[in-house]
Amino acid sequence: MTEAGAGRQGMPVLRRAARAEWGPLLRTVRSALTVAKLRAIPVTLAAVGLTLVFQFVQNQAWGYQAVQDIGSVQAWEHLWVALLRTPLSLFVPALDLPVWGALAQILIVFGIAEICVGWRQTLLVAYLATLAGTMYARIGIWIGPQSPLGLADSDKYVIDTGPSAAVVGLAVYICWRYRAWFTCALVALSMLLEVVFIKNNLAGKEHVAAILAVLALSGLWEVWRPAKPRDAHVSGWGRPR
Question: What is the pTM of this model?
């Protein structure tokens, strides 16, 4: 058999695998956007708008400190202060990263999540993932840099904002709920490799903490509501119930 023939035979297998992995998810998203268009993701659009407002304000001389006071988290501060600021911190773009990256992450991942599981679960999982990162920062500093799980003492002064932990957590959660196991494993593995080989810092380790928290939540969901065939139980835009 020629290489071209083997390649043609392999394509249907890849297509079937892709449909099995992403088909239900893509059908749900496409159906919602076809019927309701942007009205399907009102909370996501509000989150994008809030992020834009924070980006504009924090780049003004008069607004930087105000944004820090309501949405900036640092591990050296009192825990109650961090907990109060954590919900808004995920909408405050990191100063050292381009804002378009945060906006794209929110629009795509939050939008898919809002369509697939609803806005309440989207915000709940996003907050859980962000809170896991906030709490890990304190635990990691307490462990210390002598452990691979720890952080340097200087990390307690790092300004910890941005949607990345929430985005990673939501991606894992949606993949779990829609049984996209390969993608779920790929996201988790890529974050782990990021810490090992690329970004062995607070942000990278917070991503891993967010994934672990969401996997724990997903496991509890499976125990509480045993899974059914994913195409046999849908509601709304086709969300798994």
Answer: 0.89
